[in-house]
Structure formats: C-alpha cells, structure tokens
Amino acid sequence: MHHEVMSGLHVNSLRKHEILRKEQLIAALFVSGKSCKGEYLKLFYQKTVSDVKSRSPAVQVLFAVSKKNVPHAVSRNRLKRLMREAYRNEKQQLFTLCDEGRPEMSGIHLQIAVLYIGGRKSFPSFELLRQEISRLMHNIRLSELT
Fold first, then answer.
1. Which terminus of the chain has a lower count of CB atoms within 10 Å, N or C?
2. What's the structural domain count of the chain?
3. What angle do CA 44, 95, 77 make, to 5 degrees?
4. What global pTM score does this model have?
C-alpha cells in the first residue's frame, strides 16, 4: 500500500504541534475570526502573518464539544476523536491552500476551531462528520486568506 509522504511525515497524520493550544490565539480566533456553519459543526478560522520565520505549522486546529450540548464525558470524547479523525483525513485541502512552497503564502498561518453544535439526541456518523468538515474547509477561500 502506497502512502503519500510530506517532509518525511505521513500527510494524514495529526502531529502534536498542529493542535492549537495558545490561549491568546484561541481568544483572537473567536473574537476576530470568520466562521462557517454546517448541520453538526461550526468552523472558526483566521489567518495570522508573522515576519519572523515561525516554527509553528502553517495550519493549527482545535476541537471542542460543549458540555451543555453533550453532557456525558464519554460521548464528548468520542465526538472529539471522530472530529479529529475526520479532519486528519481531509486536512490535505488546507495544506494545498496554505502551501508553504509558494512565496505569497510565506509567513501566513491559519488557525481553525472546529466546534460541535449538534444536539445530544443522536450523534452523526464518522462519514457525515468527514463530509461536513470537507465542505466547511472548502468554504475557506484562498482570496479570504491572502
């Protein structure tokens, strides 16, 4: 089986440094970022530009499921695992959008928050989440990022 490899790593991996954890970036993302909404998920995104060659990846993401929407921790954790896996399978769309090899994209970083907004009655399947993440990521246009 042939796996695509990017910079010595598998394209579909989700590395630890790709997870958005900085509180200031997260706060700025929710205050000044743009958003798009699907049936189960809401995606916030914003670009940042750094003058200095940053060691952070071109795209960083966070996943959140509200305790209010999903009161049981086991269900919240399962949804976050499904969301991470769906993103991991579809993230190549964003890496082609933020291709670090293109000079006009130099120093541009994209932060994304994927929030579960569906109800607690029934949870979406992995395939539905994957399709919705793909659709939402497709809504992020290059013209909005440059």
1. N
2. 1
3. 50
4. 0.81
